[in-house]
Design a protein that fits this description.
334 residues, alpha/beta, 2 domains, two-stranded antiparallel sheet, 10 strands, 15% strand, globular, binds adenosine-5'-diphosphate, binds magnesium ion
Length: 334
């Protein structure tokens, strides 16, 4: 599978790096089709968007007609053999760029798939990145159900269908998990060797790999942040404190639990931590709560270790990255 090019940071172009197992999984899905929509969740910045773009390109290479939707980035494509469907799609995109009704475009994919299968049986992929924000979180489950229907009750027969969805929102996971309309699949930050390859591509003087690993836990977005901010960890942490609104009030209110969780995130599991706090931590994308067993079968790419106190990973609860944990620690100290 050819690897796509990515602009990693201003002036730094790389190819899609590592994630070998994930790419092998794409090939398996391509061979068999997905039996339900696969909804991929994981830490913000772990590489879900990059992976879906790579998967879209790979599936095209493997003979699929591919619809790709990423409303947050205003990125849409229909890499399809049928010129009529392509025209329909592009007209819709044009209209949507004008009136910004992103949800309509996400929904149109159902009609377009039907249209493309009308003429002949094909292999079709639908790849939807962060669509739930565009269509509204309350409609996430219904959307997923629509995708499942496309697989289970197609109007016209297809050869195979692959449906991949990524969501960066902790809460959408719960919304979707309520029903059995999708397979929820976690993805973690990059494994160390793969992360190292990305780290080595960054030009200029830089802290040791050990140090950068301890800060980022293998999260490529945090690597990018550190690089862009000239390896000034303080600045990156402050940035997280700001965007996550880790205010003095928040820290005061939940001080005791947060203090324990900074030492070991597993303190939030099974010991009566208030649901309201957990909801906040999940909604702000600070922790991943209820981590799956580390059976590779359940994960995209390689699962994280069962426990890594240095990186803030516990069996059931993990900080999204050590920098997220550090931001909370700072808020508690202020
Ligand atoms: N496998 C990879 N190889 C190279 N760059 C990557 C890889 N995965 C992620 N990145 C880069 O890391 C940053 C964050 O990744 P992204 O896919 O946006 O994360 P997410 O969608 O999970 O929030 C982006 O700049 C992206 O291009
Ligand atoms: Mg993304």
């Amino acid at each position: 599978m050819e690897r796509i090019r990515l602009e990693f940071a201003p002036g730094v172009e790389t190819e899609f790096t590592d994630r070998d197992r994930a790419l092998a999984q794409v090939e398996e899905w391509a061979e068999r089709g997905t039996w339900a929509p696969l909804v991929i969740f994981g830490p913000e910045g772990c590489g879900k968007t990059a992976f879906l773009r790579q998967a879209a390109s790979g599936l095209r290479e493997l003979g699929y007609d591919v619809f790709y939707l990423h409303p947050l980035d205003r990125a849409f494509s229909a890499e399809v053999d049928d010129p009529d469907v392509k025209t329909l799609f592009l007209d819709l995109v044009r209209k949507t760029l004008e009136d910004e009704r992103w949800g309509r475009l996400a929904l149109a994919v159902f009609d377009l798939v039907r249209e493309i299968l009308k003429k002949r049986r094909r292999k079709v992929a639908i790849i939807a990145d962060d669509v739930f924000q565009a269509i509204g979180l309350d409609k996430a489950a219904a959307y997923v159900k629509g995708l499942l229907n496309t697989i289970e009750h197609p109007v016209y027969r297809y050869e195979r269908i692959v449906v991949l969805v990524a969501t960066s929102e902790g809460i959408s996971r719960r919304e979707i998990g309520r029903h059995r309309w999708a397979e929820l699949v976690p993805m973690w930050n990059m494994p160390r060797e793969g992360f190292q390859r990305l780290y080595e591509k960054l030009p200029g003087p830089k802290p040791s790999l050990d140090e950068v690993w301890r800060w980022t836990g293998g999260n490529p977005y945090m690597l990018r942040e550190l690089y862009v901010k000239r390896w000034d960890v303080e600045k990156v942490v402050e940035g997280v404190v700001g965007t996550k609104e880790l205010t003095a009030d928040f820290a005061r209110r939940w001080g005791r639990w947060l203090g324990e969780a900074v030492d070991d995130p597993e303190a939030l599991w099974g010991r009566g931590a208030p649901q309201e706090l957990l909801d906040e931590l999940i909604a702000r994308n600070l922790v991943v709560y209820n981590m799956y067993e580390r059976d590779p079968y359940l994960w995209v790419d390689q699962p994280p270790p069962e426990r890594d106190p240095e990186l803030g990973i516990g069996k059931h609860v993990a900080w999204q990255t050590p920098i997220h944990r550090e931001a909370v620690r700072r808020a508690l100290e202020d």
